[in-house]
Automatic annotation (TrEMBL):
Classification via InterPro entries: Glyas_Bleomycin-R_OHBP_Dase (IPR029068), Glyas_Fos-R_dOase_dom (IPR004360), GlyoxalaseI/FosfomycinResist (IPR050383), VOC_core (IPR037523), Xdiol_ring_cleave_dOase_1/2 (IPR000486)
PANTHER family the record matches: GLYOXALASE FAMILY PROTEIN (PTHR21366), METALLOTHIOL TRANSFERASE FOSB (PTHR21366:SF31)
Cofactor names: Fe(2+)
Ranges where the VOC domain occurs: 12-145
Gene3D superfamilies, sorted: 2,3-Dihydroxybiphenyl 1,2-Dioxygenase, domain 1
Gene Ontology molecular-function annotations: dioxygenase activity; ferrous iron binding
Superkingdom of origin organism: Bacteria
Keywords: Aromatic hydrocarbons catabolism, Dioxygenase, Iron, Metal-binding, Oxidoreductase
Family: Belongs to the extradiol ring-cleavage dioxygenase family.
Organism this protein belongs to: Caenibius tardaugens NBRC 16725
Protein name: Glyoxalase family protein
Length: 194
């Protein structure tokens, strides 16, 4: 018998949250440019859970599948450097559209607001995407699934354990030099017993 309680199924994503420079500017981009529904939100004076005094607005945009993308407008604790454009590998958010026609229509819409939307870019025969940056330096991807999407990812899943093992062997030395063996070998630690 495992020492860990049985995992319960995770239903999906409720929200993904990011810091924003300004709520009104962020609402313009996500509501007006991308066409998400009118946001909702709350203003709180303290950080929930810590009680730290840091007034903030928490803004939520709901998508058609019920999931949200959310933002924190907390100028008191904001670091201006955080809003520099992030590299795609560091952070990006990918929204899904239904078809190539929708992707191209959205690209034209986005560009009509003066926002650059690069692409479309093909990704290994499973998705095609366009890319832009939001006002907070976050790369935004709009993507749609190509006909072989499930086949490509299914084939990758069948060999993923070996692919991971090979990748770990190939990159371990570089990672140890950069991050240290302790950081690479460490697994999440259990919290101290209360």
């Amino acid at each position: 018998m495992s020492e860990h309680p049985q995992a319960r199924p995770i239903k999906g994503v409720h929200h993904t949250a990011f810091r924003c420079r300004d709520a009104a500017q962020t609402i313009w981009f996500y509501r007006d440019v991308l066409g998400l529904v009118d946001p909702t939100g709350v203003v709180l004076e303290e950080v929930t859970g810590t009680g730290e005094n840091d007034p903030y607005m928490h803004v939520f945009f709901q998508m058609k599948n019920g999931e949200y993308i959310a933002f924190f407008d907390a100028p008191g604790s904001a670091d201006p450097d955080w809003f520099a454009r992030k590299e795609s590998f560091d952070m990006h958010y990918a929204f899904e559209v239904a078809s190539e026609e929708d992707l191209l229509a959205m690209q034209a819409r986005i560009q009509s607001f003066g926002v650059t939307a690069l692409g479309p870019v093909d990704h290994h025969d499973f998705v095609r995407s366009i890319y832009m940056y939001d006002p907070n330096g976050i790369q935004i991807e709009l993507t749609y699934r190509l006909p072989d999407h499930d086949k490509v990812l299914g084939a990758a899943a069948a060999t993923f354990d070996q692919l991971l093992a090979d990748w770990q062997a190939r990159t371990r030395e570089e990672k140890v030099a950069k991050f240290g063996a302790e950081a690479i070998d460490r697994r999440a630690r259990r919290p101290a017993q209360v």
